[in-house]
Amino acid sequence: MLDILQCLKCIYSCFVNNLLEVFQSTNSTIKNSFIASGLVSLYTERVLNKLNISLQTPISPSSRPSSRSSQFTPKISRTVTQLFKQASLLKNLLDRRLYSPPSPIKTVIDQMIKNSYLFLYSTALLTEDNANLRMANEKMIKKRNRSTKRISCAEGLTIEEAIQLAEQLNQPE
């Protein structure tokens, strides 16, 4: 029994030593992988060297435009005119903020503005179509509800009989 316990202790110690050795090599491999991918850097100088820092003096408040375009507040455009005004304000704001050649942001914004125009025009057309369909539906309902009763007197009616028939037709059923 003692031999089995000594054998188990030996196996356990070998296992622990091998596990620690594997873990230490894996740990360094994982750290090196993150460093190589650029996700984590343990060297602050390496990180600082990769930064592109360019200092610019801020625009003084007196030279800033005080127009309403500098105070851009986005709102929902309900008409094409409102959309055009908001689009021009946004483009002016971007031109002042971005001192670079045309960027993907400008392309995306132009595409969004174009889609908004299409949306507003299609909404106007659909609203008009909906109104026309409602009017046509009301006409059909009125036509369907009209009375189709016919007077079946071949000889003619007296005045009292005609008044009674007219009252019957005007009364709701």
UniProtKB/TrEMBL annotation:
Record's protein name: DNA binding HTH domain Psq-type
